[in-house]
Amino acid sequence: MIYTYGITKQGTYHIKNDLVCQDAHNIIRSDESRVIAAVADGVGSEMYSDIASKLAVKVSTEYCSENIKEENTDEEILEVIKDSFSLAQSEIEKYANEKGHDLDQYDTTLSLVVYDNDTVYYGQSGDSGIIVLNSEGLYKKVTEQQRDEDGRVYPLYFGEEKWEFGKISDSVASVLLATDGIYDILFVVVE
User: Percent helix, strand, coil in the chain (nearest 5)?
Assistant: First the structure.
């Protein structure tokens, strides 16, 4: 039995400055042994990045749920995840164009996992992240935050040159996806 939990809360900075929560998540249980989950975080305080993050998680998880089949190879599953990232960005662009908005106001990150039995496939864009608990009881940081030397985030629109995809070779017991607010706390380096 797989249990899933999803929490999205407005951060203290956004509350203090009366800004909308830009984080979003979506979880789809495909069957008893497969769950597809994603988190996204609107980058900066762009006007519509909350919409972009909601679109990114919805589009990517639904696409993976519809297109990943039990008989797929590892390579085929990773290709579906990659295609879901492209589709998510395409849908964000389409939405912005339909509304007549500047696409620069729709930046978002996207982290996605396909948890199938004890195997995890993932996709990563930006500074959110993925952590797994393996069957031996050890936590493993799966993804690195994607930022430039000045700390600016590489959002989803940067495309394949920045996106990361992979499969966890360990047997996985649990997965945590977190946007940067929580992910940063988990990896604070004490000096």
Answer: 35, 30, 35
